[in-house]
């Protein structure tokens, strides 16, 4: 059997060593930047605080699921000997190839721009700028609609969703004062923003309400190809006043700690764990170790080219994210550690127990230019998905649809469902801190930094573009680190007395 068809989690380190030193591809998809997997594990894996010193570190060992007082062994290698299709092992750092069909299908599905309540008004304004004679031509109408869709696509769908209520509010205000929405001048816009400011002041919320309303109005004018009156001094003054005077309610949201994740795994992962619970706990562990948002988890695909196992780590491909709107893609490394709290080990258990299909069926695929090639004809879906008492609701679905019909992909578990189960499972595990789904991302960063990982490496793994945001809003240095700042000032008493003044 050739090496590339061996299961990735039973490859011996000696066999994999040659692949780790392969020259990197300059493509944006050819991440990460470490020179070898062992370096990544040494620099990032252990500081998370999940390592069990007594457990074996062998990547070829059977997977152990820890229960309260018992250990259930799941022999992952044995699964490869049966009828399971063994995923090929991608070369370390190789660009995404066979998984592109899964990525492209999801990007195409997410490109559908939301309907605008003021679409007719936008088209009317653009049509008046072109003239009635041109607008009588079907080609011109079609091209104009294409331009509007392109402008919409320049912003994320979630952004338009946030803008939608404020666009409706602005249109209602326009009807109330008897002015067409796209005929507003700066003074009239400032009246609308002043009303939004008053509502924010009454509801005791922060300046974001005013800023979002202003951005929504600007986006509306941008769609119509007109300069936004919100850029004027009056509107800028209202926004600045909101930043200076409106104080948001501070939410005391704690960061998750390694102890919280250990309690979660001890409580819920055992031989008879329901599949829905195993999916949730595994995704929470991946979120902590990989510093993933919910939106990232929803994009973790099980396709063998998009989820890559190596003896010392797993790499999860994110085809887009909050900080990657241009869909350059990134491979997120999560190091394999010793003990029952290893996120990679939990992931391997889940893939076997859940019966996920990682190698989709192959067949003829017709490209837009009419050429035919062999490629994936199935969508094998995300890791985080719905299931029933009998297993996954969908294992794989056709990646093609009849002409005029939309491809029905396997959808990730909805955020509302994930957040609800997140809180329930933590409560059942005895975790009393007020944690949200984002607490795993901030908690993972904090645990890694306080455990000794380099801050720059943690920022890169977590894909934070701004070090300011990373340091101020995500990393919470422990008390000892903060005390060292004062000790380094040279003012400490060297006589042997403690800080309280006792001998």
From TrEMBL:
<dbReference type="InterPro" id="IPR011010">
    <property type="entry name" value="DNA_brk_join_enz"/>
</dbReference>
<dbReference type="Pfam" id="PF00589">
    <property type="entry name" value="Phage_integrase"/>
</dbReference>
<feature type="domain" description="Tyr recombinase">
    <location>
        <begin position="411"/>
        <end position="476"/>
    </location>
</feature>
<dbReference type="GO" id="GO:0015074">
    <property type="term" value="P:DNA integration"/>
</dbReference>
<keyword id="KW-0233">DNA recombination</keyword>
<feature type="compositionally biased region" description="Polar residues">
    <location>
        <begin position="13"/>
        <end position="37"/>
    </location>
</feature>
<dbReference type="InterPro" id="IPR010998">
    <property type="entry name" value="Integrase_recombinase_N"/>
</dbReference>
<dbReference type="GO" id="GO:0003677">
    <property type="term" value="F:DNA binding"/>
</dbReference>
<dbReference type="InterPro" id="IPR002104">
    <property type="entry name" value="Integrase_catalytic"/>
</dbReference>
<feature type="region of interest" description="Disordered">
    <location>
        <begin position="1"/>
        <end position="37"/>
    </location>
</feature>
<keyword id="KW-0238">DNA-binding</keyword>
<dbReference type="InterPro" id="IPR052925">
    <property type="entry name" value="Phage_Integrase-like_Recomb"/>
</dbReference>
<dbReference type="InterPro" id="IPR013762">
    <property type="entry name" value="Integrase-like_cat_sf"/>
</dbReference>
<protein>
    <recommendedName>
        <fullName>Tyr recombinase domain-containing protein</fullName>
    </recommendedName>
</protein>
<dbReference type="GO" id="GO:0006310">
    <property type="term" value="P:DNA recombination"/>
</dbReference>
């Amino acid at each position: 059997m050739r090496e590339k068809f061996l299961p990735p989690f039973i490859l011996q380190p000696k066999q994999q060593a040659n692949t780790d030193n392969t020259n990197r591809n300059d493509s944006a998809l050819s991440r990460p930047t470490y020179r070898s997997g062992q370096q990544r594990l040494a620099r990032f894996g252990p500081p998370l605080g999940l390592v069990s010193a007594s457990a074996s570190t062998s990547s070829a060992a059977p997977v152990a699921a820890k229960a309260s007082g018992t250990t259930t062994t799941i022999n992952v290698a044995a699964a490869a000997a049966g009828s399971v299709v063994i995923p090929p092992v991608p070369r370390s750092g190789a660009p995404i190839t066979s998984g592109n069909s899964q990525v492209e299908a999801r990007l195409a599905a997410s490109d559908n721009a939301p309907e605008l309540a003021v679409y007719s008004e936008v088209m009317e304004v653009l049509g008046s700028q072109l003239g009635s004679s041109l607008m009588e031509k079907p080609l011109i109408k079609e091209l104009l609609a294409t331009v509007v869709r392109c402008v919409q696509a320049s912003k994320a769908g979630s952004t338009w969703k946030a803008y939608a209520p404020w666009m409706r509010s602005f249109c209602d205000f326009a009807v109330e004062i008897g002015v067409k929405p796209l005929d507003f001048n700066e003074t009239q816009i400032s009246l609308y923003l002043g009303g939004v400011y008053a509502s924010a002041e009454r509801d005791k919320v922060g300046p974001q309400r005013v800023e979002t309303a202003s951005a929504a109005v600007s986006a509306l004018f941008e769609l119509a190809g007109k300069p936004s009156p919100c850029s004027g001094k009056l509107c800028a003054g209202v926004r600045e006043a909101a930043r200076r005077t409106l104080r948001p309610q501070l939410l005391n949201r704690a960061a998750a700690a390694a102890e919280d994740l250990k309690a979660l795994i001890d409580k819920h992962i055992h031989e008879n764990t329901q599949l829905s619970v195993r999916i949730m706990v595994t995704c929470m562990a991946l979120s902590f170790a990989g510093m993933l948002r919910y939106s990232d988890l929803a994009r973790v695909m099980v396709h063998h080219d998009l989820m890559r196992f190596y003896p010392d780590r797993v790499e999860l491909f994110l085809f887009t994210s909050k900080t990657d709107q241009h869909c350059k893609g990134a491979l997120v490394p999560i190091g394999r550690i010793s003990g029952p709290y290893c996120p990679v080990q939990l992931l391997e258990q889940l893939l076997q127990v859940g019966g996920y299909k990682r190698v989709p069926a192959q067949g003829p695929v017709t490209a837009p230019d009419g050429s035919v090639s062999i490629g994936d004809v199935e969508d094998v879906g995300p890791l985080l998905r719905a299931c029933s008492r009998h297993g996954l609701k969908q294992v794989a679905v056709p990646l093609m649809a009849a002409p005029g019909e939309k491809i029905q992909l396997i959808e990730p578990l909805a955020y509302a469902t994930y957040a609800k189960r997140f809180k329930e499972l933590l409560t059942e595990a005895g975790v009393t801190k007020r944690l949200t789904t984002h607490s795993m991302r901030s908690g993972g960063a904090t645990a890694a930094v306080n455990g000794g990982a380099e801050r720059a490496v943690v920022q890169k793994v977590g894909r934070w573009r701004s070090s300011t945001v990373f340091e101020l809003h995500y990393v919470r240095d422990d008390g000892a680190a903060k005390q060292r700042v004062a000790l380094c000032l040279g003012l400490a008493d060297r006589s042997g007395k403690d800080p309280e003044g006792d001998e």
